[in-house]
């Protein structure tokens, strides 16, 4: 989860999020280079008295300042598309979990099991135990096996919601009448927090998402205890 006054992203938990972090740094580097160049040129233009009243055209420099930005754009577009298609890939999932957005809670349905489903409500501030996180803790966490590809099916029962877990690089709209799909894979165990990311109504801020990623044997015990 994010810590107070955090400026950057949360640490990556999935390979996709690692890729996204690399891509973010790569793009930001280009932004810094362009900004410094532009600021430098602006400061030059404000301080110099040199003007070229006789220059009508300059083919060479025009060719350079047309082709160079095109190359920079390709350097951003190609890795971006690569990650986009990687995120779209469904890598033979070993578990499918359907989550539905409601006003204002999430419900989870483990469709590989006969009867494994529950609602996940936020714990109100007045009922928090010491050390629990305000507006982020839920009564029933979605327990999932780590190091396994999981297919998340996301939809909504009433209005638009969005199922988002930043450290896994996930953000998928929950749209009534539409079933969206995304893949989830965690490389380590732990608790991963997210929130609804579509303004969905008065309690929009109070429908957090908590994933508990555990080794497979613990997941099996948990699923057996839930049946
Ligand atoms: Cu919502």
TrEMBL record:
Stretches that traverse the bilayer: 27-46, 66-85
PROSITE patterns recorded: COX2, COX2_CUA, COX2_TM
UniProt keyword annotations, A-Z: Copper, Electron transport, Magnesium, Membrane, Metal-binding, Mitochondrion, Mitochondrion inner membrane, Respiratory chain, Translocase, Transmembrane, Transmembrane helix, Transport
Recorded superkingdom: Eukaryota
GO BP terms, alphabetized: ATP synthesis coupled electron transport
Co-factor: note: Binds a copper A center.
Pfam assignment, any one: COX2
One GO cellular component term: mitochondrial inner membrane
Main subcellular localisation: mitochondrion
Record-level Gene Ontology MF annotations: copper ion binding; cytochrome-c oxidase activity; oxidoreductase activity
Named cofactor requirement(s): Cu cation
CDD domains in UniProt: CcO_II_C
Residue ranges occupied by any Cytochrome oxidase subunit II copper A binding domain in the UniProt entry: 92-225
Keyword set includes Cell membrane: no
Cytochrome oxidase subunit II transmembrane region profile domain residues: 1-91
Subcellular locations according to the entry: Mitochondrion inner membrane
Membrane topology: Multi-pass membrane protein
Catalytic activity: 4 Fe(II)-[cytochrome c] + O2 + 8 H(+)(in) = 4 Fe(III)-[cytochrome c] + 2 H2O + 4 H(+)(out)
UniProt-listed InterPro entries: CcO_II, CcO_II-like_C, CcO_II_C, Copper_CuA, Cupredoxin, Cyt_c_oxidase_su2, Cyt_c_oxidase_su2_TM_dom, Cyt_c_oxidase_su2_TM_sf
Reported function: Component of the cytochrome c oxidase, the last enzyme in the mitochondrial electron transport chain which drives oxidative phosphorylation. The respiratory chain contains 3 multisubunit complexes succinate dehydrogenase (complex II, CII), ubiquinol-cytochrome c oxidoreductase (cytochrome b-c1 complex, complex III, CIII) and cytochrome c oxidase (complex IV, CIV), that cooperate to transfer electrons derived from NADH and succinate to molecular oxygen, creating an electrochemical gradient over the inner membrane that drives transmembrane transport and the ATP synthase.
Family statement drawn from the similarity comment of this UniProt entry: Belongs to the cytochrome c oxidase subunit 2 family.
Name this protein carries in UniProt: Cytochrome c oxidase subunit 2
Protein's organism: Budorcas taxicolor taxicolor
């Amino acid at each position: 989860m994010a810590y107070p006054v955090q400026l950057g992203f949360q640490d990556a938990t999935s390979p996709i999020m690692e890729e996204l972090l690399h891509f973010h740094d790569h793009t930001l580097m280009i932004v810094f280079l362009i900004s410094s160049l532009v600021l430098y040129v602006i400061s030059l233009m404000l301080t110099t008295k040199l003007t070229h009243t006789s220059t009508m055209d300059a083919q060479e420099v025009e060719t350079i300042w047309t082709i160079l930005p095109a190359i920079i754009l390709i350097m951003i577009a190609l890795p971006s598309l690569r990650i986009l298609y990687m995120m779209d890939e469904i890598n033979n999932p070993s578990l499918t979990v359907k989550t539905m957005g409601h006003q204002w809670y999430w419900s989870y349905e483990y469709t590989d099991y006969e009867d494994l489903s529950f609602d996940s409500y936020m714990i109100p501030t007045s009922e928090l135990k010491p050390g629990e996180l305000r507006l982020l803790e839920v009564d029933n966490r979605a327990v999932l096996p780590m190091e396994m590809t999981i297919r998340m099916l996301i939809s909504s029962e009433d209005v638009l919601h969005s199922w988002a877990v930043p450290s896994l690089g996930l953000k998928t709209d929950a749209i009534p009448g539409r079933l969206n799909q995304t893949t989830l894979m965690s490389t380590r165990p732990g608790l991963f927090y997210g929130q609804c990311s579509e303004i969905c109504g008065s309690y929009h801020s109070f429908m957090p998402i908590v994933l508990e990623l555990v080794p497979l044997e613990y997941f099996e015990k948990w699923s057996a205890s839930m049946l």
